[in-house]
Amino acid sequence: MTFAIAVDRVRAAFTDVPRMELTLPQAVKRWNLGADDCRAVLDTLVDAGFLRWTTRKTIVRSGAQLPGRHSFSVHKFVPIVRHQDKSVGMA
Asked: What is residue 88's predicted lDDT score, i.e. its pLDDT?
C-alpha cells in the first residue's frame, strides 16, 4: 500500500466515524501499519488540519465533538492520490 492510500484509508475512517479516538498503538493495529508509518500518516493529516493530537495522546478528528468539549471545524485540503503499489513508501 502506498503512503497516499494509507492516508486515504485513515481519512475515510475518521470521516465515517467522526468521534473516533485512538491511541497510536490502536491506530497501528486498526490499519495494520508499522508504528513509524502510522505516525507519519497521522502526522500528515494533523499537519493538514484534519486530525489533532489530544492531551491524552490520542488522535481525533479536528472539530469532532467529544463529550463535555467544545470544538470547531477546520477544513483544509488533503489531496487524494490513487496508486496500485502495495508497499508503504515515503518517497
From this structure: 57
* Residues whose CB falls within 8 Å of the CB of residue 43, separated by 6 or more in sequence, listed in order: none
Provide the 8-state DSSP code for 50. Answer: S
Residues 6+ apart with CB under 8 A from 35: 24, 25, 28
Q: Residue 13 carries which side chain, given as an amino acid letter?
A: A
Ordered domains of the chain (ranges, CATH): 3-61 (1.10.10.10)
Question: Nearest Cα to 53, choosing from 77, 25, 21, 16?
Answer: 21
**C-alpha pair distances (Å), 21 with each of 1, 17, 59, 90:** 24, 9, 6, 25
The predicted model scores a pTM of 0.68
